TrEMBL record:
Pfam families the UniProt entry points to: PG_binding_1, SLT_2
Keyword Signal part of the UniProt annotation: yes
Protein name: Lytic murein transglycosylase
Gene3D superfamilies the UniProt entry points to: 1.10.530.10, Bacterial muramidase (1.10.8.350), PGBD-like superfamily/PGBD (1.10.101.10)
Residues in the signal sequence: 1-25
Record key words, sorted: Signal
């Protein structure tokens, strides 16, 4: 999935557009008139009038898509709750089986693009349960519905045009192609524009089929991750043990030190040795919860998906699939309920902090604001909001 939402889980968005678009994407209004505008735009991008008519024939608004777009509550869960929910022994077992079954494909993906099999397996599992759950929304209708909706038209309108281009190439059936509610398609859930730019014919049949071909899906996913800036042969996440006391304000993804500097502060790998180089200490549930060192490749994964809890879980899952032990949950302090988190975000916003939308989700902006407030109040600045912090504010 190219960083909007997945077939199984709903998350935030990010988009890289390679097709030219209008300066201001139009949205809303009469649906038929809106579709007529899309047809004209598709023709400007190279479709014939007949092709544009065929692509948009029978298009309709899907109310289920808008309902799903407004309901993203799963990412209000903590890291441990989310990880325990999605990383089951069954998925670990199936991951090992798939690694063996597609061993040659994973070897090729690593050779050609430098992306570890654990990372590909983790996203394959979390997105579609290794291809078993790819979504049941008509992709064209979902994209047109979201483009017409005035919440994020600049995000989805280019994807409609990209899907039309795939149709022109013979790799998209507008009536039958189904996927996730936000328009992602296939076993690793990629948007049409990303399929155009990163699609790989992994099985050599002359077509890029991300739905039916695991080889195509995995090679395309690897190419996309590589294009995001993945560093060949480098790690992404490693579990650590942190001392009882340290300068917690140095932790977080926006701060990076050498592993030697972290070691001097008392940070130790839970198993093995540090990989060397730079890394950030990641405390997804505060200083008393599980702890990781996030290497530069970890940040690349946010180009796939913008949800902090999703990316952290996927990265941790990838290490498990490559043999790392189960994370030590430690004893994190109680977090906030959804209502409390919204109240906290409102208080932080009132104090001038940019926390993004008031959605009850502990995202990057809210974490950064919490850490700054903790430091100002003389509290351990570990970016984990607690009821005590809320009360202090």
């Amino acid at each position: 999935m190219r960083s909007i939402l997945s077939a199984s889980f709903m998350t935030a968005m990010c988009l890289s557009v390679s097709l030219p678009v209008t300066a201001q994407a139009q949205c809303g209004g009469n649906f038929s008139s809106f579709v007529a505008g899309l047809k004209a735009e598709a023709q400007r991008h190279g479709l014939s009038a007949a092709q544009a008519d065929a692509f948009f024939k029978g298009v309709r608004q899907d109310s289920r898509v808008l309902k799903a777009d407004r309901a993203q509550g799963v990412f209000r869960m903590s890291f441990l709750d989310f990880a325990n929910r999605v990383i089951s022994q069954n998925r670990l077992t199936n991951g090992a089986r798939m690694a063996q079954k597609y061993d040659a494909i994973f070897d090729r993906a690593e050779r050609d693009y430098g992306v570890s099999r654990g990372v590909l397996l983790a996203f394959w599992a979390l997105e579609t349960d290794f291809g078993q759950v790819q979504g049941d929304f008509n992709t064209r209708d979902a994209l047109v519905t979201l483009a017409h909706d005035c919440r994020r038209p600049q995000l989805f309108r280019p994807q409609v045009i990209a899907a039309a281009e795939l149709f022109k190439r013979g790799d998209f059936d507008p009536a039958r192609t189904i996927g996730a509610w936000a328009g992602e398609v296939g076993q690793v859930q990629m948007l049409p524009d990303d399929i155009l730019r990163n699609g790989v014919d992994g099985d050599g049949d002359g077509h890029v089929d991300l739905k039916g071909s695991s080889a195509d899906a995995l090679m395309s996913g690897a190419r996309m991750i590589a294009g995001m800036g993945w560093r060949r042969g480098e790690p992404w996440l490693q579990e650590i043990a942190v001392p009882a006391e340290m300068d917690w304000s140095k932790t977080g993804l926006n701060r990076s030190l050498s592993t030697a500097e972290w070691a001097r502060m008392g940070v130790k790998p839970r198993s093995g040795a540090f990989a060397g180089g730079q890394g950030s200490v990641l405390l997804p549930m505060g200083r008393k919860g599980p702890a990781f060192i996030a290497y530069p490749n970890f940040k690349v994964l946010f180009e796939w998906n913008k949800s902090f809890v999703y990316v952290t879980t996927a990265a941790y899952f990838a290490t498990r699939l490559e043999g790392a032990p189960r994370v030590d949950p430690q004893s994190p302090e109680p977090g906030l309920s959804v209502a409390q988190m919204k109240a906290l975000q409102q208080k932080l916003q009132a104090q001038g902090f940019d926390v993004g939308p008031i959605d009850g989700i502990l995202g990057e902006k809210t974490r950064e604001a919490v850490q700054r407030v903790q430091k100002r109040l003389g509290l351990p600045a570990d970016a984990w909001p607690t009821p005590a912090l809320l009360q202090r504010l």
